[in-house]
Amino acid sequence: MDAITRDFYEERRRKWRRSAFWRGVLATVLLIAGSLALAGWFLRDAHPVGPHIARVEIWDVIYSDPWRDEMLVEIAEDDDARALILNIDSPGGTVVGSEALYLAIRQVAEAKPVVVTMDGAAASGAYMAAIAGDHLIARGNTITGSIGVIFEYVNFAELMDRVGVGVETIRSSDLKADASPLRELSPEGRAAEQALVDETQAWFRGLVAEARGLEGAALDAVTDGRTFTGRMAVENGLIDAIGGEAEALDWLESVEEGLSELPVETWALPEEEETLLPRFLGAVLGLDTRLPDLSMPNGPRLMAILK
To answer: TM segments (predicted)?
Structure first.
């Protein structure tokens, strides 16, 4: 082998050794990043340990959320969680979602003290959830109340007539799908939908009456859909006090001595479930591997929401 050929192969070996070194460095970095990402996933969803007061935040519009409700059941069953502070800042949401949240909070309240703190708003379906607690606290200017039910949808019938578009629908009866954006609601259909709203509102009123000890004119005055500030809500019996988390801790201390000395730990709602591989690739590559949220409302439904 001549000198030129020998030098050529020697240079190739040096290049291979350098590239092998950097490949090893890259593999090590990816392994460390992957390990940290996996640890982060498990630690993220891990619940606090040791005696503490659990804090759960209910913010934005309320929909059906089995992960949220399951977490509340876990709090009810966790002996380390000695009490619950439920922080609400929500205009309400679907009636079914608010009902499910109410029932989950009631499970906690049957096992340990639950105090509710209201921030900017805790109205309609959010107020429904709040009354599942034992003690309700709001800021003086919190918007609450709005106790009522809505069935609402967009109607394009007149617009379709103007542009000359028609839709043929074959129905099993005149009331089937009468509430449709494609046609005007008939008097019979309106009466049927109103009966549905009225029945649900009567159920909502019953929850308020039982939770807040209201009846007669006092109940009528707060369940006609109007909103109240926190100060007004104290006067009419919808909440118990003005304040925030400090006042919530004071109330817990009055219920059980020593509770206010425990740390307050936030229980975070778990993120949507993903298989291990998409979650790993998402963390390492910076990609969003989450599926669309199919639990969001996609059609007309009963709402208990601030309007």
So the answer is: 21-43
How many CB atoms sit inside 10 A of residue 245's CB? 15
Which tokens is 209 given? 């009456």
Task: Return d(Cα 133, Cα 241) in angstroms, integer.
Answer: 13
How many domains does the chain fold into?
2
On whether both 39 and 67 belong to a single domain, the answer is no
Whether the pTM exceeds 0.70: the reply is yes
9 confidence band (pLDDT: 50, 70, 90): low
**Mean pLDDT score across all residues of the chain:** 84
Per DSSP bridges, beta strands 302-305 and 150-151 are: antiparallel
Answer yes or no: is 18 within a domain. Answer: yes
Q: Is residue 110 part of a domain?
A: yes
Whether 112 is a known active-site residue: answer no
Check 15, 176, 295, 307 and give the catalytic one. Answer: 176
Q: List, in sequence order, every beta strand (DSSP E) within 124-214.
A: 135-138, 143-145, 150-151
Which one of the listed residues 124, 146, 180, 260 is annotated catalytic? 124
Q: Are residues 73 and 196 in the same domain?
A: yes
* Residues 210 and 62 both lie in one domain: yes
Is 307 part of the annotated catalytic residue set?
no
Q: Are 62 and 126 in contact (CB under 8 A)?
A: yes
pLDDT of residue 18: 62
Determine the distance from the C-alpha atom of residue 61 to the mean position of all C-alpha atoms in its chain, rounded to a whole number: 7
Burial tier of 66 (Cβ tally within 10 Å: 0-12, 13-18, 19+): exposed
Domain co-membership, 232 together with 83: yes
